[in-house]
Amino acid sequence: MPRLIIIALLMALFFSSCALDEENIPDETDPASAFIGSWSVSDNSLKLNYTVTISRNPLNSTEVILDNFAGSNDAATGLVTGKTITVLNQQIGSGWYVGGSGTYKNESRLEFTYDLEIAGNEEKRLAIFTR
Fold it and tell me: pLDDT (tens digit, 9 = 90+) per residue, 33-50?
């Protein structure tokens, strides 16, 4: 019986020390810091691959700038709250409209769902950001 208790305690200790990356929360005092950098993007709609660079918005500490968002060669502005970047409906480039959100999964993965409208054609997209 004591052997079973020891094994159960060891298993409980082992499993409690293995936290999933998804449970890691960005720095609460500076949540934007987790998103800053260059990301390789795989966009499911047309199986597009491109790079997005996320940087701080110097005019607003809770916002980030997503350069080349949606492979547009233009920038979108996103609001960071906790583990999420929200891109409010906005025009980027010449006639591109975007809106959606991205969720921080771990230090090397973001998952973005967004709507894209180009010349009146609308589509929903899922983009996986990795680094």
Answer: 999 999 999 998 678 899
